[in-house]
């Protein structure tokens, strides 16, 4: 039965099986059941095809009934940038469902009896679990239990709450990322302290403010040799990637679904960190050479950001992913990561902050400035992505065709000069004919050039679209924490709260504030390095390209010298 739905985000189709949808567009869904994270339906223009389930909400006509929301939040849409290299403007989570056959098999060297679906709870900010599941003492137990095999992250929010400890009022919107991430419970002191915390992440004061303490053992990791492999006597096919961490210099081989598992563990654990989005999955054509090469390039960028992050690079699950070669140990490590208790709001308990005093108003002003900056950067990144994508299309299509037309016109001139032999000049005719062939060659050079310059630019822009899309929810956590501090101080001033309890809320707010500022500083450091490299590479490749074009033209010009 067809259902009505509304698009939550823009989605640009990549191939003929998919259709484009616009934010707030009314859609018709042919079936409410998603297949590997995709729905089939019709947009307002009458086009029929596939689009991500997490980009839409299905509207039920019954009065008071809940709608099916595959997105879980504005941060719940998958990272799916298209062949046009465009992303939705606000995708936070990028759990990418697909029709890839390797998502349906038996996980190879993984534990077949345990999947991400079985071990993950509902998502909050950046994919973290609902606080109703993490801290049952602080929240009610009413939860939705309708699990689907894909996507693994489903909304299971509690609609009720019971006060525990603090008398500061809780947010009425139980679906806000501040609540679902568990940060509200942390600020109000409802996150239980662990008797033993094995991991700690330190924040130091640097020249530009709080910053994550550098990893004591920095390393890099290469991503190479995407290789098509098969199993079940060729029934199943997949691509494996060779990963070689510099700290052990011993390669491991991982499939994309292994990356996907790791990515969801990262979202589940790190509340206030902008986890880089994985490159997108694709409904069809996943074994095509261009798609495999594009995915490899983007996995290299993703891995570079992971290894450069002082916190993410030290995560035990990430180290296990990069280093484990033994199948038995692999399963044990996978289970250990999935049973990790220091996730979501509990992760905040592992952060050690400096003793330096920071005025909360100054912090709020700094966060507001970063919010305005990130919004402007996101807009400009999207603008450059659209311009560069259009330029790619022109290189591959328009420019090549125009140069071919010019070459054919020169060839026609040469052929016409052969029509009257007494006055024909073979040298001139050959030179003009060669000029036509030269411009045809130049057209092919234009068509191939994006692989050398624009693709790297678009890869970098895509990565930053994902990183920037994470920050609105992370900033919202800080805003929510600020609000609780102000409310608690007002209540303390009115004598309705002990000052000690208000001081505890302020102290825990400092943890969130320091963590966000450290993440902001890391983002700026990477931004400077990445965009410097991107621009240098683009300009160098442009110079090389036009030098090659110039050489072709100069060679052709010399043919006219001795006529």
Automatic annotation (TrEMBL):
Biological-process GO terms, alphabetical: cleavage furrow formation; endocytosis; endosomal transport; intracellular protein transport; mitotic cytokinesis; plasma membrane tubulation
InterPro entries noted in UniProt: AH/BAR_dom_sf (IPR027267), PX_dom (IPR001683), PX_dom_sf (IPR036871), SH3-like_dom_sf (IPR036028), SH3_domain (IPR001452), SNX33_BAR (IPR037427), Snx9_fam (IPR014536), Sorting_nexin_WASP-bd-dom (IPR019497)
Gene Ontology MF: a single term: phosphatidylinositol binding
Segments of skewed composition (Basic and acidic residues): 143-157
Region spans: Disordered: 69-166
Record's bilayer topology term: Peripheral membrane protein
Every SH3 domain range: 1-61
Primary subcellular site in the record, as a coarse category: membrane
UniProt biased composition (Low complexity): 71-83
One matching Pfam family: SH3_9
Binding residues for a 1,2-diacyl-sn-glycero-3-phospho-(1D-myo-inositol-4,5-bisphosphate): 255, 257, 295
GO cellular component, one term: cytoplasmic vesicle membrane
Keywords: Cell cycle, Cell division, Cytoplasmic vesicle, Endocytosis, Membrane, Mitosis, Protein transport, SH3 domain, Transport
Residues in PX domain copies: 219-329
Alphabetized Gene3D superfamilies for the sequence: Arfaptin homology (AH) domain/BAR domain (1.20.1270.60), Phox-like domain (3.30.1520.10), SH3 Domains (2.30.30.40)
Cross-referenced SMART domains: PX, SH3
SUPFAM superfamilies attached to this UniProt entry: PX domain (SSF64268), SH3-domain (SSF50044)
UniProt keyword Protein transport present: yes
Domain of life: Eukaryota
Coiled coil (residue ranges): none
Compositionally biased residues, Acidic residues: 99-112
Family listed: Belongs to the sorting nexin family.
Protein known as: SNX33 protein
Organism per entry: Alca torda (Razorbill)
Gene: Snx33
């Amino acid at each position: 039965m067809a259902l009505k739905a509304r698009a939550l985000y823009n989605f640009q189709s990549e191939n003929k099986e998919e259709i484009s949808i616009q934010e707030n567009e009314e859609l018709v869904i042919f079936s409410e059941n998603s297949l590997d994270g995709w729905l089939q339906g019709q947009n307002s223009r009458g086009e029929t095809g596939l689009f991500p389930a997490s980009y839409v909400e299905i509207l039920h006509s019954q009065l008071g009934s809940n709608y099916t929301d595959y997105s879980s939040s504005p941060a719940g849409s998958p990272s799916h940038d298209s062949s046009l290299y465009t992303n939705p403007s606000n995708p936070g989570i990028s759990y990418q469902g697909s029709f890839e056959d390797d998502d349906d098999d038996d996980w190879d060297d993984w534990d077949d009896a345990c999947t991400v679906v079985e071990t993950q709870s509902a998502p909050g900010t950046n994919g973290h679990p609902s606080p109703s599941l993490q801290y049952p003492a602080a929240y009610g137990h009413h939860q939705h239990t309708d699990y689907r095999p894909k996507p693994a992250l489903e909304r299971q929010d509690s609609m009720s709450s019971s006060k525990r400890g603090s008398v500061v009022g809780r947010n009425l919107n139980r679906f806000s990322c501040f609540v679902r991430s568990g940060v509200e419970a942390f600020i109000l002191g409802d996150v239980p302290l662990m008797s033993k915390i094995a991991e700690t992440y330190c924040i130091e004061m640097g020249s530009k403010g709080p910053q994550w303490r550098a990893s004591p053992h920095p390393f890099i990791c290469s991503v190479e040799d995407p290789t098509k492999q098969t199993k079940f006597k060729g029934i199943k096919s997949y691509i494996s990637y060779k990963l070689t961490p510099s700290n052990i210099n011993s390669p491991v081989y991982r499939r994309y679904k292994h990356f996907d598992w790791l990515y969801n563990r990262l979202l589940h654990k790190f509340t206030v960190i902008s986890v880089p989005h994985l490159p997108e999955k694709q409904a069809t054509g996943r074994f095509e050479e261009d798609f495999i090469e594009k995915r490899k390039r983007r996995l290299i960028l993703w891995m570079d950001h992971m290894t450069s992050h002082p916190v993410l690079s030290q995560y035990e699950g990430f180290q296990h992913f990069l280093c484990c070669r033994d199948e038995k140990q692999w399963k044990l490590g996978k289970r250990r990561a999935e049973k990790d208790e220091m996730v979501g709001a509990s992760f905040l308990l592992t952060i050690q902050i400096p003793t330096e005093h920071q005025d909360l108003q100054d912090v709020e002003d700094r966060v507001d400035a970063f919010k305005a900056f990130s919004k402007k950067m996101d807009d400009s990144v999207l603008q450059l992505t659209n311009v560069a994508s259009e330029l790619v299309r022109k290189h591959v299509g328009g420019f090549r065709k125009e140069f071919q037309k010019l070459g054919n016109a020169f060839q026609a001139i040469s052929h016409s000069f052969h029509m009257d032999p007494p006055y024909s000049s073979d040298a001139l005719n050959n030179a003009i004919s060669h000029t036509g062939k030269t411009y045809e060659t130049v057209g092919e050079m234009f068509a191939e050039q994006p692989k050398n310059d624009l693709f790297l630019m678009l890869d970098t822009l895509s990565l930053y679209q994902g990183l920037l899309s994470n920050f609105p929810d992370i900033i919202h956590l800080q805003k929510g924490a600020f609000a609780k501090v102000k409310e608690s101080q007002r209540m303390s001033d009115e004598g309705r709260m002990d000052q000690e309890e208000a001081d505890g809320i302020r102290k825990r707010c400092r943890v969130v504030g320091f963590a966000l500022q450290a993440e902001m500083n890391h983002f700026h450091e990477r931004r400077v390095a990445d965009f410097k490299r991107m621009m240098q590479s683009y300009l160098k490749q442009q110079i090389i390209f036009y030098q090659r074009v110039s050489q072709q033209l100069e060679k052709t010009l010399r043919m006219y010298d001795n006529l």
